[in-house]
Write a structure and sequence with these properties.
Blueprint: E1 15-18, E2 21-24, H1 60-71, H2 79-83, H3 88-120, H4 127-136, H5 140-143, H6 146-183, H7 191-205, H8 211-214, H9 216-238, H10 255-266, H11 269-277, H12 290-314, H13 333-365, H14 374-395, H15 399-427, H16 437-469
Antiparallel strand pairs: 1-2
Helix pairs in contact: 1-11, 1-12, 3-4, 3-10, 3-11, 3-12, 3-15, 4-6, 6-7, 6-13, 6-14, 6-15, 7-14, 9-13, 10-15, 10-16, 15-16
Main location: membrane
Keywords: Membrane, Transmembrane, Transmembrane helix
Organism: Galleria mellonella
C-alpha cells in the first residue's frame, strides 16, 4: 500500500503493521453506527464497499503481495522447530490442516466484518471495531458490553504484538550471543547482560513516534529476511540426508507445541482487515479463488516445505530459528551473513511492530492524561513497554518455547476463538443454517481454539520449567 497516506487523518485509529507494512484503519471507532432497532434489518440494503473513499486503493495483486508479506515473516524460520514436535509426516499434514483452519477463521473474521458493516452502516471496520459492532447489534444481553469488548480486544491485540516483540528480542540475543561466543570464548557475557545491551538501542528507537521515520527500514528489513531465507535453504540442501532418518511422528504430548508454533508463524490476523479495507475491489478478497485463499495456499506450501526440509536436515537439533543452526566457522561467510542479516532485520521489525501496540495503548489511555503531559506520558509509556519486552526475554530465554507459548496463548484466542465467537454471535438471531450447522461448526472451532490455548500453554510452561531446572 502506498505510504502517501496522511497519518493525521487517522490519528484516532489504530495502525496495523506487519513486517513493516502500514495499514491505517479506514474508520474511527467513534463514527461506527451501532444503533440497532429491534425490527428486522435488511442486511443488503447498505453496501459498505460503495461508501469507501480511498485515496490510493490497492489492486488484487498488490493486496495479495501485502497479505503474503504479512504472513511470511520471521516465523517461517521457526517451522523446522515446529516439525520436531510432530514428526515429518504428521508435520506435513498438520501444517495443511492448521493452515485450513486458520484460513477459515480469517474468512469468518472478514465475512463477519463485512456483514456487520452493512448492519451498522459503516464503510469498513478494523478488528476491535468489528467486535464492538457485533456485540452492539447482537443478542440483547451482549449489547451493553459492546464497548468493553472492543477495549478488551484492543488490549489483547496490543499484548499479542508485545509478546511477538519479546520473541524478537530473544532471537536478537541468541543470534548475537552465538556469534560472539564462537569468536570470543569465555567472554563472561550472559543472556541477561546481552538483554541489557540491547535495551539501550531499543529504548532509543522506540521513542520514534512518526511513521515516516520508520518507513525506510521496512523494505530494508524485508530484503534481509529474503536473503536470510535463501541462505538457510542453501545450507539445508547442501548436505541433505535421507528423509527416512527422521520419524514420521513423535510423542503426541509434544503436539500442542507444534500447533502453537505453527499458529504463531502463520497467523497474520491483525493485518487481514486493513488489507481488505484498502482494496479497490474488496469483493475479490473472499470467495474462490479469492485473494485470501490464494495467499494462504502459498503460505501453507512455503511453511510446509521449510519445516519439512529443515527438520530432515537438523532433526531434534532444530532451533527456534533455523539461522541458529547455521555453522559459525570463520570460513562460513554466507552463514555469518545470514546471522547478521537476521539481527538487523529483526531489530528493525521490532521497532516497526512496536508502533502498533503503542498506538492502541495510547488511544485507550490518553483521556486520563492532561494534554500538556502528552509527550512525557508517551515517552514513559514507550520506555516501560519496551523494557517489559526485554525483561520477558531475559526471563524466558528459550526461543522455541516462547514462540509456542505466544502462539498458544495469544494467537489461538485472536486467530481462532474470537473470529468463531463473532460469527456465532452475529448469526445467533439471524441465520444459523440448516440443522444449525453454523452453531455446530463455530462451537467446534471455539473448543479447538480453547484446547490449543490450554494444552499449548500448559506444555510450554512445563518445557520452560524443565529447561530452567535442568
Amino acid at each position: 500500500m502506498s505510504n502517501s497516506y496522511n497519518m493525521k487523518e487517522f490519528s484516532s485509529t489504530a495502525v496495523i503493521t506487519n513486517n513493516g507494512q502500514f495499514y491505517p484503519s479506514t474508520i474511527s471507532i467513534n463514527t461506527i453506527n451501532t444503533k440497532h432497532k429491534e425490527e428486522e434489518v435488511d442486511i443488503d440494503a447498505y453496501n459498505p464497499f460503495q461508501h469507501r473513499k480511498l485515496e490510493h486503493p490497492n489492486s488484487d495483486m498488490r493486496s495479495f503481495a501485502n497479505l503474503l508479506k504479512s504472513s511470511l515473516g520471521s516465523g517461517i524460520l521457526a517451522m523446522p522447530a515446529a516439525f520436531k514436535n510432530a514428526g515429518s509426516l504428521v508435520g506435513i499434514f498438520g501444517t495443511i490442516i492448521l493452515g485450513y483452519i486458520c484460513t477459515h477463521c480469517v474468512y469468518l473474521l472478514v465475512k463477519t466484518s463485512q456483514d456487520v458493516s452493512k448492519v451498522s452502516k459503516s464503510p469498513s471496520l478494523g478488528y476491535a471495531e468489528t467486535v464492538e459492532a457485533v456485540f452492539a447489534t447482537g443478542p440483547q444481553p451482549l449489547r451493553k458490553v459492546s464497548k468493553a469488548s472492543r477495549i478488551f480486544i484492543d488490549w489483547a491485540m496490543a499484548f499479542t504484538i508485545l509478546g511477538a516483540c519479546a520473541v524478537y528480542v530473544i532471537l536478537l540475543v541468541e543470534s548475537v550471543k552465538q556469534i560472539i561466543d564462537h569468536f570470543y570464548e569465555d567472554n563472561g557475557i550472559n543472556t541477561t547482560m546481552y538483554c541489557l545491551i540491547f535495551l539501550v538501542p531499543l529504548l532509543i528507537f522506540t521513542q520514534i513516534k512518526n511513521l515516516k521515520y520508520l518507513a525506510p527500514f521496512s523494505g530494508f528489513a524485508n530484503i534481509l529476511l529474503v536473503l536470510t531465507f535463501l541462505i538457510c535453504l542453501y545450507y539445508i540442501c547442501s548436505e541433505f540426508p535421507n528423509v527416512t532418518i527422521r520419524p514420521s511422528s513423535v510423542d503426541i504430548g509434544k503436539l500442542p507445541l507444534f500447533i502453537g508454533t505453527v499458529i504463531f508463524a502463520m497467523e497474520g490476523i491483525g493485518v487481514v482487515l486493513p488489507v481488505e479495507n484498502t482494496m479497490a475491489k474488496p469483493e475479490h478478497f473472499l470467495g474462490c479463488p479469492g485473494v485470501l485463499n490464494i495467499t494462504m495456499s502459498v503460505v501453507v506450501l512455503l511453511y510446509m516445505i521449510m519445516g519439512f526440509l529443515g527438520y530432515i536436515r537438523y532433526g531434534d537439533l532444530a532451533e527456534g530459528s533455523i539461522t541458529l543452526n547455521l555453522p559459525t566457522g570463520k570460513n562460513e561467510i554466507p552463514a555469518l551473513m545470514a546471522k547478521c542479516f537476521i539481527v538487523l532485520a529483526i531489530f528493525f521489525t521490532y521497532t516497526l511492530q512496536f508502533y502498533v501496540p503503542m498506538e492502541i495503548v495510547w488511544r485507550n489511555t490518553k483521556e486520563h492524561v492532561a494534554k500538556k503531559y502528552y509527550n512525557l506520558a508517551q515517552a514513559i509509556m514507550r520506555a516501560f513497554f519496551s523494557s517489559l519486552t526485554v525483561a520477558a526475554a531475559a526471563t524466558l530465554p528459550r526461543l522455541e518455547q516462547v514462540i509456542g507459548l505466544e502462539g498458544a496463548f495469544f494467537y489461538s484466542f485472536l486467530g481462532l476463538i474470537a473470529p468463531s465467537a463473532m460469527d456465532l454471535i452475529f448469526n445467533w438471531n439471524r441465520d444459523l443454517g440448516k440443522y444449525k450447522w453454523v452453531l455446530i461448526k463455530d462451537v467446534c472451532l471455539i473448543l479447538f481454539g480453547t484446547f490449543v490455548l490450554v494444552t499449548g500453554v500448559t506444555q510450554s510452561i512445563r518445557e520452560i520449567i524443565r529447561t530452567n531446572n535442568a
